[in-house]
């Protein structure tokens, strides 16, 4: 039997999981935005009249807010959790942030579980999940009962799953930010085709025009959210005694492109570069990127 689940936050991740899971009759939800609470009925999720109503009776709570709100959500909602409930923090934040959130949840009598979502949520319930914490195995059983099919326990310590996620993000999001900087410069210098051809000559699995187009697409759509994630990655590096020179600037690059509001982005690299440069020329945020 699937556990009674409460969704904290009903953005892209929450709605995608709920639609795929068809959790009617055993799912409640809460979001600070009224329009998202209204939309829950379309996904067979009962919207709570308030956070307490949404969390009442929950065996499992899935925290699916933005990275910059993850700690506050844990602290605010921990006192509302039923005793013994599992609080699965699925947000992309630093191990230190998750450990601070765990303190609040554990102090309230519930149990905290560190969950890292390792791919875009458009994979729905097949998205890879890494799970850590003292009750990680129990959380995995419940998540599988909800329909998640690609789960793995990585350890008993809070922060182990998020460390894997954010160390990977340092590379993935950093490459996106470097790609944006490179193609914008090469385009303005009039050497874009030559630069891309040179890169293609040295690496063939995915053509650089395709990669550059894809990376810009991700940043224009998700740059705001990803910048918050990378700020948490920078915190992790500082906690490890590493000066996050590249990661700090990746935060800025992701933020600047996401702030342009180009959604949906146009198809094709040339079209994306044109609209970015047009926004820049008209005083858009890209001038800060």
UniProtKB/TrEMBL annotation:
Domain of life: Bacteria
Record domain 6-phosphogluconate dehydrogenase NADP-binding: where: 5-143
TM annotation in the entry: none
Domain Phosphogluconate dehydrogenase NAD-binding putative C-terminal, chain residue ranges per copy: 186-256
Name this protein carries in UniProt: DUF1932 domain-containing protein
Record organism: Aurantiacibacter flavus
Record lineage: Bacteria, Pseudomonadati, Pseudomonadota, Alphaproteobacteria, Sphingomonadales
